[in-house]
Amino acid sequence: MVASKGCGFNSTPMRKIIHIDMDAFYASVEQRDDPSLRDRPLAVGGSRERGVVMAASYEARRFGVRSAMPSATARRLCPDLVFVRPRFDAYKAVSAEIRAVFEEHTPLIEPVALDEAYLDVTENLKGLPTATEVAKDIRATILARTGLVASAGVSYNKFLAKVASDHRKPDALFVITPAMGPGFVEALPIGQFRGVGPAIEAKMRRLGIQTGADLKARSLDELRAAFGSAGDYYHSVARGIDERLVRAHRERKSIGAETTFSQDTSEYAVLAERLQPCIDKVWAVATAKAVVARTVTLKLKFSDFAQITRARSLPVALADRATLEGVSLSLLREAFPLRRSVRLIGAALSSLQAPSADDDARQLDLSL
């Protein structure tokens, strides 16, 4: 990729962006550290009956096992699935090794998770001639130092770099050049666009939007009318344009997870059950990030796509998952009676901070 020319879509000078995504990170660390787990279908997460799959090895994915899937469902799909409890200290240590590799090439690093980051290598510290060479060097160094495989996407903006890293996973390096960008986006299934979750994808398909070309054919006014402020984003990325910068030292303001149902429901017991994987995922991310929180938010989206949120801020940080579950279910109970059925439920933590010694000394009254 040539750095100095404009990309042809706007006046912003072209950047060189790499998106690095570790392949099945948690599961790969477990298989690396325990040879008996190699080449076996593996899930990192809760027990077989309860909890949620946090990560699945590629051997497990062949059976349809995916992250955020209830453990019981994963077990039904793959009877020989091996469950391993997460070791966040190990994952954080490996993530630090990977971050050190990134820092050898650029200070412009935007972590997305322990296993994922954007890098702006428009100017790289090693003086390598292209972003593709930087990505090759990063992948080879990560493999040599950690024994783990990283996939990389290279492009001129964050949206396309992310698309590229997913394109041929696992163990992939894919480049989307400025000349390729618009055509590549036009052929992209709408579900592969960043920011298009199951609910938005279903709405787009009802509007006849199946691919990037269909999205590009809609005017900005049409997209704003259908999707509000997100319409501006969809209008831009459909043309291969994404001017978001790689932001180093990004501070995470909240941690959330949500799930969309195949069939709407208004029953409390069903909603409480479907909230459990969201609670598992949120607590797992907070633990992995070594943060505590004081605010819990419940999200409900109804059959007509209207949505509500209910939040509670606590005097001290949440002490454990049980507290998070108790507050979340209390918020759910308070939302009843429901006038409409629910299609999506979610939970989130905010008011994040590093844990203090006082947090361990104080406990919350769980009778909410």
TrEMBL record:
The keyword DNA-binding applies. Pfam families: IMS, IMS_C, IMS_HHH_1. GO terms for molecular function: damaged DNA binding; DNA-directed DNA polymerase activity; magnesium ion binding. Binds 2 magnesium ions per subunit. GO terms for cellular component: cytosol. Mg(2+) binds at D21, D115. Monomer. This is DNA polymerase IV. The lineage of its organism: Bacteria, Pseudomonadati, Pseudomonadota, Alphaproteobacteria, Hyphomicrobiales.
